[in-house]
Amino acid sequence: MTDVTVAADHREEGALATLRRGLRMMPEFRRGLPVTFALALVATAGRVVVPIAVQQVIDRGLAAGAPDMSLLTWLVLACAIVVVLTAVAVYRMNVRLFRTTETALANLRVRAFRHVHDLSVLHQQGERRGSLVSRVTSDVDQLSVFMQWGGVLGLVSVGQLVVATVVMSLYSWQLTLLVLICFVPLAVAVRWFAKRLAASYGIVRERVGDVLGAVAESVVGAPTVRAYGVGTRTANRIDTAIDRQYRAQVEAQKVTAAVFVSGEFVAALANAAVVVVGVLLGVAGEISAGTLVAFLFLVTLFVAPVQTASEVLNEAQNAVAGFRRVLDVIDTEADIRDPAIDDPAGVRELPGGPLGVRFDHVSFRYAPGAPKALDGVDLTVAPRLRMAIVGETGSGKTTFAKLVTRLMDPVEGRVLLGSDAAGWVPLDDVAFASLRSRVVMVPQDGFLFHATVADNVRYGRPGMTDADVVAAFDELGLTDWVGGLDQGVATPVGQRGESLSAGERQLVAVARAYVADPDLLVLDEATSAVDPATEQRLTRALDTLTDGRTTLTIAHRLSTAERADEILVVDAGHVVQRGTHAQLVDAEGPYARLHASWRRSSAGEPTSAV
Amino acid sequence: MARRRDAVVRRGLRHVRRSIVEQPGMFTLAVLASSLYGGMTVASAWVIGQITDRVLLPAFADGATTAAALALAAAAILGVALLKIVGILGRRLFAGIMSYRLQADYRRRVTRQYLRLPLSWHQKHPTGQLLSNANSDVEASWFFVAPLPFACGALVMIAITVVALVLTDPLIALVGLVVFPLVFLVNVVYSQVMSPRMQRAQQLRAEVSEIAHESFDAALVVKTLGRETAETERFQARAEELRDGLVAVGRVRGLFDPMMEALPSLGTLAVLLIGAGRVADGSTDAGSLVSIAYLFTLLALPIRAIGWVLADLPRALAGFDRVTPVLEATGETPYGPDAAVAGEVGAEVGVHDVGFSFDGTSRPTLSGVTFDVPAGRTVAIVGPTGSGKSTLAGLLVRLVDPSDGHVLLDGIDLRRLREGEMSDQAAFVAQGTFLFDDTVRGNITLDAPFTDEEVWTALRVAAADDFVAALPEGLDTRVGERGATLSGGQRQRLALARAVVRRPRLLVLDDATSAVDPSVEARILDALRSGGGGASAAPATVVVIAYRQATIALADEVVWLEQGRALARGTHAELLAAVPGYAALVRAYSQAEVAA
User: Fold this and answer.
1) Which of B195, B301, B379, B508 is at a distance of 20 to 30 A from A76, taking alpha carbons?
2) Which residues span the domain enclosing B196?
3) What is the tally of structural domains in chain B?
4) pLDDT of amino acid B77
């Protein structure tokens, strides 16, 4: 259920079906389309003006002996006006197309972005995040680039072919047939060319990836390369990769060049045929000299579309594939839905005051068929209680956090918030807005945004001033830490908070949760080592943060467990022990064993595997 | 402004010359081919004119023609076209080869520098920057080379055309002298208006992508604070800026394309009008008129190639400016004449009054550090974050040289050792485990002649034999970048096996066991100390940078490092008793131990 196989049923969808689905989703595309089409007609019509002018000048001017210069002047002037009007029409058409497609794509991008935030795959499967990012970046970028360069070009090229064919058939159906006979096989072959091109460039891309990897070894692995004296080996590996890329590029270039000249060759063939057959037709009195020369000009209109088509087709396929991926993301149903949107009438309010947590026979599994991560858990955490949850990796302790914050829903049973006095409300009846303002989680890595310390703190409560943020740090006992920062709370934290140490990032994350002022707090404790001074500050800040609030802490350190009001020991999806630290240490059981091994490791003796 | 543009043009031309000097052969071939193409393009127009004059018009006038005339006409068209095709093929192929060779060549030079330059140089440059220097910057530097021969061919073509025009009819030539420079000018203006817009769009694309990356990475924070809508607004604002940027790009391009279509068309029409008059008064013939009109329709594309080169030059210069510092960077690791003392026992390490500072930082990372490690002993270096532990580890295996003092191996200053001696004697396992994109075997042997048996022994010592045996292809399984997914602990154990298999006399571990279970770590260290497993092996000297109390306790002695100084030395118990800072740190770390 949480392992979202993103709309697998669309995988076999054809390009046209994708386009239809996309157009349904992007009504902006259709707006003003008739005008654009009208402009496109004018635009392509203008391309045949020059051949027609050539025909007219030859037939009316030169072949007749004494040309009528004033007629010719008017004629050429009229053609010039058409050429200019065509240019204006093309410009208007281009701008309209660019504006429509870019607007539609920007909206598509934003829609996909919003939707990705609703998908649990985003936080469940971190390794897939990169591919989700490319749904709203490179996939859309590729579409946009294709629209700007290939799409418009392709549209005009097709129009050009159609108009040229129409004009030709008005002049002479025999010669038109001849030209088509020459070009139709090429048009068919273009598809095959496109496939060959795609294959060659696929190999090039792969080789480029190999080079990137090899080069990275000389940079990322520099200490290792140096320490083992394997510079020559690394150089050889890089050379091999570079060489293979070079050869793949040359191969691809051969295919490209071959495809490119096929149009030239067929055009020459058509021209030769037109001259031979045209002269014979002319001798028979079927066509004029001007018509024949005009045909030679018209044939050149066929060359460019074939050349662009072979290049554009390949990119079109990539663009459509990207389009499909974006649409698939939007079509993927969010697995956790906000009741305020789905069923506004059934929404219930959380009772005011501190919130307790109740698990009513809750089971959860991460994927259909997977073992249960939690199995029939019943428990109640009273309001204001500070509860630590301990257990080995994979015991199911983090699942508690995800269920209480409704990042996931149980497969069986219910999670409720409230208290015996004020009543219990099932989590899936609570509007997200209300839930998020009352229940706050501090995730393990305490992610920070590329902004200032203050910005990161007020992320939990927009509208706070810097002074409010300073006050919050004071209340948390972190005045001295803020004072030590270059620019106080206005200090930028760098990308992902990298200018701060892991412990300091935790401090900011704690402050962020503190200003959000939740009634129920879920802490997923960090595992990374923190230097002693920061550790002390963190402990103090956490004490203030959790004071008076119901707190569930996913504890990775036993020192944290020791300080909790109660401890829940989880093993293989079941709650196996519950009690205070003192009770559990004395009782025979898993907690006592965990505790003993911790004590041993503190004393500096080698521990047995825990 | 104008002067700056001049400078860019001058530097651009110098850059073009550089590409030609580096690949003179390919350039000559490509330009020859391109000139053939240019010549044949003109010839094809001439052939059409000749056919009009000699075959077409007489046939239409007389109502009769000969098979020979028709055959000749067809043969002329096809012959010229075939030569033109040869020209295109040659131009594309040779230009491609030229550009790819330059890329490959510079990529090789840049990576040679990476391998040659000392680690201190690496430390001063961000990884991402070095990677893009070798990849996208090199590519950008030579991108303009692909259309360069085409552009040169176009110049040839224009020259031929102008001469032909003047010879045919000076009045018609005037049209060409107006239209061709105009086409060129439009191209130049286009690339100047376009390039800042393209840059801005590119920049905005990067910003949109940055927001998406950050926002998705922050998914848990965003979701649990209910900030999805705010995040979407943030993304939308930038996405709309990008949209506007792209529309601005589209508007320029949308204007340029029809202009490039219209200019030659208008030229053709002018030729027709002027030409008709000239034909009427007998100054020229119909064939010439047709061939010139035809030529105009063919010439627009090659002229654009000149524009492509000009448009790519600023980007090329920017890329090359980023590559040059790498190529010109100096800094050697000088080697001495001495051989190391070969022996079966562990090496003796001496650190004498060693200081180290990164260039540009006032506070030295290390100063006056002195200690010895007797052969076969294990010493742990302990200290708070930023105390200089990793730097010290790097000094011991000569990844960097000290600013002051001496580091000795068996009494010989490391700088006096011959190249390769250090890595023969010592092995180093770095903090961030690095695996090559290679097989398990390749990662351990690094192509040195170790037998599989030796590799398995090393894996056993590093407690990696079990999981390697369970891998689908055992030693031949690919790991690293694009290979099998290994856990952090598994990767560390492979890196340890790489060190162990070499049976080094000195082993330096920079927090290299952090992702390994403490009990496994103890087993590994025990085996390492006894010299790589085999019963006959002599104990190696081990220097280990450690955080865990359990690890520290395995060492014979501990060196306490604080703010770049070795402040105390003794057994773990002695330091616990004597140094309060040490005791506090060790306690803090063990409290931070992951319990489960």
Assistant:
1) B301
2) 173-283
3) 3
4) 92
